[in-house]
């Protein structure tokens, strides 16, 4: 009878351990999602600050201002522009730093 009781106790212990592991896994997933969201927001803020600093440098310290890279046109687009056409629209921004 003591062996059966020990087995029952072990089975209950395993079930309790499985519950705690599932709970810990869910908590880690939530924390990971929050971390990723926070990091994306932080990266977006950093990029915005760099743009603002560059914009301010344009007026207050021109030697530190970094010009944006000119748009590179394909051969067909360049020919169209040379004949008086309009350049194609620039690509839309990709969203906020890694969020979409």
**How many individual β-strands?**
0
C-alpha-based Rg, rounded: 29 Å
N-to-C order of helices and strands: HH
Oligomer: single chain
Query: What class would the helix/strand composition place it in?
Result: mainly alpha
3D shape: elongated
- Beta-strand residue percentage: under 5%
Number of helices: 2
Please state the average pLDDT score: 86
Report the helical percentage. Answer: 55-70%
Mind summarizing the main beta sheet? Answer: none
Low-confidence stretches: none
Q: N-to-C terminal Cα separation, in Å?
A: 62 Å
Question: How is the topology of this model organized?
Answer:
Elements: H1 2-60, H2 75-82
Describe the structure.
- This protein has 100 residues and is an all-alpha fold.
- It contains 2 helices and no strands.
- The chain is elongated and about 95 Å long.
- The N and C termini lie far apart (62 Å).
Please summarize what this structure is.
The chain has 100 residues and is mainly α.
Q: What are the main properties of this structure?
A:
single chain; mainly alpha; 67% helix
